[in-house]
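During the second half of the funding period, the structural biology subgroup turned its attention to how the target accommodates small molecules. The most pressing case was nicotinamide-adenine-dinucleotide, which had performed well in the primary screen but for which no bound structure existed. We therefore specified the complex as follows and requested a full 3D prediction, including the ligand pose.
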Amino acid sequence: MMSRKENSTEYVIKLETVRRCPIVVGDGIINQLERYFDFSGYSGIALLTDTTVQKLYGQRVMKALEATGKKMSLLTLPVGERAKSLNTVERGYRFLLENNIDRKGLICALGGGVVGDVAGYLASTYLRGINYIQLPTTLLAQVDSSIGGKVGVNFGGKKNMVGSFYQPSAIIGDVALLKSLPPAEMRNGLAEVIKYGLAMDGELFRLLDQKKEREFTTAELKDIVIRCCRLKAGIVEVDETERTGQRAILNFGHTVGHALEAATKLQELSHGEAVAIGMAAAARISVEVGGLDRSNIPVIENLLSRFGLPVYCQGVNPEDLIGATRFDKKTTRGQTGWVLLKGIGNGVTNQPVADDVVRKVLTEICR
Ligand SMILES: NC(=O)c1ccc[n+]([C@@H]2O[C@H](COP(=O)([O-])OP(=O)(O)OC[C@H]3O[C@@H](n4cnc5c(N)ncnc54)[C@H](O)[C@@H]3O)[C@@H](O)[C@H]2O)c1
């Protein structure tokens, strides 16, 4: 069950999975970590971050962790997706061993999805599993990757090939940290926020649609992050390890998105841009199969464009994309299970779509 507590500074969602995991969202809460998590039973703390986040927030978070009186060690990873590798994991194991992190040790992941995924995987395997908490610092990590316990690294040139489901003991998201996010990273997160709106929460979509400016105030960001955390927590609670199919709703826009990333070898498009094009494509496919009224297409495309996200792609062969959609992770026995829309805020999972429909839409969007 999910319950909540509200006060003036922070908002707590109680995510009930195999491990109870409070999700705390607030403005300026990173300095007072002890208020939100009980560090008392831990023998030592290993803080993992990346070089950019270390420069911006490392000192502040170390100070907050030092206030616990626990022995603290810091591992700073290089920035970016390339750090999501087994080499980094090996480096992490050595670091944990050298710093005498034992079964009662705690890993704190301070950063975006890359740091969170690596730190979570380290926590899930080191000494057969030690506790970790997520301190997400990107919008994408606060609304998506820190929640739900999917942890892992890339392998053999493929994303997230090695990993596990391993829930954190707490997620503490401070929206004040988003002020330093570069616009491109903000857009990556916003693509996921729009995904929640389109697939699960029509009111969230309308709130975004009514917004005149591209920039968000901290109060608006806090509301958005809370809303998305509640949506994701609700899904994770009913399908923690992706067994019942309900979690697939979170993949709206990702079938074409992943295909685009594969076809462009991640060189030209960011993940958020690929997902934005993927959502535009999935909306058009929804219209073709009769699930969505055509009048929604300009509304969806205008919103994506207003937030600086693309809805068309150039220089990609639609046939390559069609091939790549067949290799989506959600493909079973050769059949791609599409997430489509019946309306804004009303996504449906596991929909079969004929190849000629996919071809028609992908030809439209690959200009
Ligand atoms: N586990 C999951 O369920 C899940 C879900 C979605 C995505 N992911 C993974 O998440 C990763 C992407 O995460 P991401 O978008 O956070 O990327 P990221 O972790 O690479 O962070 C993006 C960039 O922002 C910088 N940064 C982070 N916080 C900052 C801040 N507050 N101010 C300024 N700069 C900051 C980082 O140093 C980095 O350069 C991918 O590897 C993806 O596979 C995982």
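Two results from this model are relevant to the next phase. The chain has a mean pLDDT of 92. Residues 50, 52-53, 56, 79-81, 84, 111-115, 117, 137-138, 140-141, 144-145, 148, 150, 159-160, 177-178, 180-181, 185, 188 surround nicotinamide-adenine-dinucleotide (CB under 6 Å).
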